[in-house]
């Protein structure tokens, strides 16, 4: 199984500042058919289901604010929120969909300072 | 508008069985793979099982293999998860989610609100 490890486990950032969450996979998740990395990011607010933010490591889902961006390749990936807003308080998960089981990272809790 | 509505959760004794359902609408159900993801109380997300668009391929996490069965009824636009030999560690909110792909399980672009399963005596 591919193990997904996020860092940090929790993060406190001031409003308007940048937040960076890292995700490392135990194996390369580059999908050879389209040469894209099979990595997604989700946001989960309390009492709500997860919401897709980013897929193929860097493609923003429709309707997601452009302050959210994804980067990385191979085994190392990053979710960046360029200017933190109050509504961004949530837990963020990375997930690989390269192979089953489609494992998630343990989550990163983002709070406002 | 895509909608996924889970049902069938509840309180069940260890060793018991339960069938979850997920009613889908707002998209062509037979054209997309579907999946179940669960979340134990206060814990992270755990992928449980997936099924291809026409049901020809199924996938399971090792933790549920041999105990859970995923299926779909295209005529009813409904996804199922038959759970048996339930254990306390199966206690979680179970979400159904739509995959962005057909035969492969890609990322999950729509999620239901979840249904609570509690395994306890």
Distance between the termini of chain B: 40 Å
Query: Any low-confidence stretches of chain A, pLDDT <50, length ≥5?
Result: none
Specify which chain pair forms the largest interface.
A-B, 24 and 23 residues
Structural class of chain B: mainly beta
Beta-strand proportion of chain A: over 45%
- Helical residue percent of chain B? under 10%
Could you describe the largest sheet of chain B, including whether it forms a barrel? 7 strands, mixed
- Form type of chain A: globular
Structural class of chain A: mainly beta
Describe this structure in words.
- The complex is a heterodimer of chains A (about 110) and B (about 120).
- The model of chain A has no long low-confidence stretch (mean pLDDT about 95).
- Chain A is globular, with a radius of gyration of 13 Å.
- In chain A, the strands form 3 sheets. Chain A has a 6-stranded mixed sheet, with no helix packed on it. In chain A, strands 1-3-10-9 form a 4-stranded antiparallel sheet, with no helix packed on it. A two-stranded antiparallel sheet of chain A has the order 4-5.
- Chain A has no helices and 12 strands.
- The termini of chain A are far apart.
- Chain A has strands at about 5, 10-15, 20-25, 30, 35, 40-45, 50-55, 60, 70-75, 75-80, 90-95, 110.
- In chain A, a hairpin with a 3-residue loop joins strand 7 (about 50-55) and strand 8.
- Chain A is mainly beta and about 110 residues long.
- In chain B, the strands form 2 sheets. In chain B, strands 2, 4, 5, 6, 9, 10 and 11 form a 7-stranded mixed sheet that branches. A 4-stranded antiparallel sheet of chain B has the order 1-3-8-7, with no helix packed on it.
- Chain B has strands at about 5, 10, 20-25, 35-40, 45-50, 60, 70-75, 80-85, 90-100, 110, 115-120.
- Chain B is about 0% helix and about 50% strand.
- Chain B starts with a strand and ends with a strand.
- The radius of gyration of chain B is 13 Å and the shape is globular.
- Chain B is mainly β and about 120 residues long.
- The mean pLDDT of chain B is about 95.
- Classes of the chains: A mainly beta (about 110), B mainly beta (about 120).
- At the A-B interface, strand 6, strand 7 and strand 11 of A face strand 5 and strand 10 of B.
């Amino acid at each position: 199984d591919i193990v997904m490890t996020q860092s940090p486990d929790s993060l406190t950032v001031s409003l308007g500042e940048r937040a960076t969450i890292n995700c490392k996979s135990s194996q390369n998740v580059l999908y050879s058919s389209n040469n894209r990395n099979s990595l997604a990011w989700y946001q989960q607010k309390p009492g709500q289901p997860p919401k897709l933010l980013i897929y193929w490591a860097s493609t923003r889902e429709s309707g997601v604010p452009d302050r959210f961006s994804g980067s990385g390749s191979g085994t190392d990936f990053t979710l960046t929120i360029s200017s933190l807003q109050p509504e961004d308080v949530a837990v963020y998960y990375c997930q690989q969909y390269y192979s089953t089981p489609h494992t998630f990272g343990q989550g990163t809790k983002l709070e406002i300072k | 508008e895509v909608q996924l509505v889970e049902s069938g959760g509840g309180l069940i004794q260890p060793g018991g069985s339960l069938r979850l359902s997920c009613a889908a609408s707002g998209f062509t159900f037979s054209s997309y793979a579907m999946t179940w993801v669960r979340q134990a109380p206060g814990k992270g997300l755990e992928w449980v099982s997936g099924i291809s668009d026409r049901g020809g391929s199924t996938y399971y996490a090792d933790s549920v293999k041999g105990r859970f069965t995923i299926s779909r009824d295209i005529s009813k636009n409904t996804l199922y998860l038959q759970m048996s030999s339930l254990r306390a560690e199966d206690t979680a909110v179970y979400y159904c989610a739509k995959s962005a792909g057909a035969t492969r399980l890609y990322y999950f672009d729509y999620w239901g609100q979840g249904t609570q399963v509690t395994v306890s005596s």
